[in-house]
Amino acid sequence: MINETFVAETPKEAYEEAVVKYGTNIKLLSAKQVKYEDGMLRCEVSIAVPEEVFMEKSLGNENEEQTEEHALLEELSLLKEQLALMKEDMLSVEDDSVISKVKRLFMEKGIAKKWLDDVLVSLLGNSILSDAKLLVSYILEEIDEALEVVDDESLDEPKIVMLVGPTGVGKTTTIAKLAARYAYMMERPYKVAFLNLDSYKVGAFDQLGQYADIMQIEHVTVDSVESFMRVLEALKDYDIILVDTAGMSPYDTQKFIKTVEFVQSDMPRKVEVNLVLSATVKYEDMDDIYNNFSFLDLYSVIISKFDETKHLGTLLNFMLLYKVPMSYFSIGQEVPDDLLVASKGYLLERFIGDLDG
Ligand SMILES: Nc1nc2c(ncn2[C@@H]2O[C@H](COP(=O)(O)OP(=O)(O)OP(=O)(O)O)[C@@H](O)[C@H]2O)c(=O)[nH]1
Ligand SMILES: [Mg+2]
How far is CA 271 from each of CA 151, 177, 217, 231, 328, rounded to the nearest angstrom? Predict the structure, then answer.
């Protein structure tokens, strides 16, 4: 037999509880009135239960507890599902709510649904969600915060700046603009040299050489990693060495492999690799460009051809997703004038112009 004590206001109630729990096959051992710490009088009824009954009922209870827990978990997961559905509803572009309208506006301009959803979900329950103007400015602020720029143009240490990118995006033109900027347009003139890796275009017009002649800038062409290293050593007194490369389609693995050799980490001097990306880049091409060029451990993105498009959402989306800092914007063909130091303000202003238009 196993003993157990039940407590209630009257002995009858305590005994009844015991019966409810174990049935009538129990034996009354004792009943007494006890004054508890809270000053109340309560009755303690002790009973003895046959072991098999005790086991059966206790296990039964445990099962009951388990079932209860199970039911609770099920209810919880149902609630979670409902919540997810509510979120989905809230973020759905089908209806006419403020959220949907604002979301549609940004999506139409090229911002990814996933990025927008993440921002919107963080606002669940916030009154901003019911005011279109506030919501638009909130999203713009989030974009502003997510964007990164390189704002350090100082040349305290000599730099090797390589430009890579798809064919015809404006690498060589941008190099010429950068050369003029550093050689003649900063608070002090820097010693600038050109290094041309653009040796794949055999017999091609030497565009960089022409700029070098006009600006009277040192200009060397190299065709192997060994000569690259030799030339870098010879040019070690220069403040900035601008390295031009051949345009590469993101699918041209051969050229990538060749270029990677020049920027490997065991090189004696670190090469800053900057991806030149056209503002007119197509959404479908973004991933391919990034995935391939990021092999080169990108330092920054230089955005070219700002003047050729009014729609900057796709580009902005690229910057939001890949989080590479921007360093310069090329806004036209004119050397050296059409170059700006990257600024979030400029990019956002242009984007807002497009949102309004
Ligand atoms: N509208 C506009 N044209 C530009 C800009 N930057 C470069 N270009 C023009 O784009 C064309 C190609 O420029 P390049 O500098 O030769 O481009 P690249 O990337 O060196 O080309 P490859 O070496 O052949 O890969 C030239 O006609 C440039 O004048 C820009 O910001 N805006
Ligand atoms: Mg070029």
Answer: 18, 19, 20, 13, 17
